[in-house]
Amino acid sequence: MTEILNIFYLFFIFNLIGFYNLSKNSLSIKITHNTLLFLNLALFFSLIKNSSQYFLSIYILLSILIGIILFKKKASFKNIKSIFFENKIYFFLLLFVFLILSIDIISKLKLGWDAQNFIFLKTLHFLNGKPFLSLVELDQPHYSHLGSYIWSIFWNNGFFNNEYNGRLFYLYFFLISLFSFCSHFDNKKIFIIAVLGFVLLFYKYKYFFGSQEILNFSLFLILSSTIYRRVYLNKKVSFIEIIFLINLFMWFKNESIIMLFIIISYFVLFSKNLISLKE
Fold first, then answer.
1. pLDDT tens, position by position, 163-213
2. Quick one: angle between helices 239-252 and 146-155, nearest 10?
């Protein structure tokens, strides 16, 4: 029972990270954008000693403060309620899928080979407040460190301290990326079918036993959604959004340099009409 309450609590914390955005995009895209902001700020704070102990608290407090200011200026409480009710399918479906898959993850608690020998050690390194520069003392110091830092951030921020708290954020990031990808289906029934279908197709426990590939796959889903919004829906894409995406690709997995090259090439070739500095 305690584990179930912990899952609900973490779901609430994860959503606090990205809810305050009041842009004109859909709620799914707003939450995705703010989560990208969170991850980029986490990259910066990962360079600071002991930051895994306080970064999440500072970020959430600032998010709540900014949210209160923005809602006070641009939305009444009645409008806030309407945001929830208009997106109730999104919230309940996200909660339902997150709960089911979280139970599967915490019931197995097996880490992959790479996770056990390299990624988990980096997670413990940040959890114990050691500086970024001393990562060179660990095996395979060239492994990207951001996934490990994110893992350590959430380790101590559940109802109780457990390593899987961080891996549940991997799950949450995967799901909001998937929801963003499927949000272009205007029909709600098709949206639900698409989400559940993709979850059944893509979810396997081995993708959430500490492997970083699921983080890059989630970024690829966001990138696909971004390109679709611009190319097919003819909507402007923020320059900052592109920078956030490009930056994260090379910090979750070293092999992503190839993907990064493809992304940069694409946006350079089509940058004239693809991005907007005003958004």
1. 899 999 999 999 999 998 998 887 889 999 999 999 999 899 989 988 888
2. 90
Assign 158 a pLDDT band (cuts: 50, 70, 90). confident
For residues 235 and 227, what is the distance between their CA atoms, to the nearest angstrom?
A: 10
CB count within 10 Å of CB 166 equals 24
Amino acid at 232: Y
Q: Which two tokens stand for residue 165?
A: 């708290």
- pLDDT tens digit sequence for 43-78: 999 998 888 888 998 988 888 787 777 666 655 455
Inter-residue contact 131 to 88 (CB < 8 Å):
no
Per-residue pLDDT tens over the stretch 169-183: 999 999 999 998 998
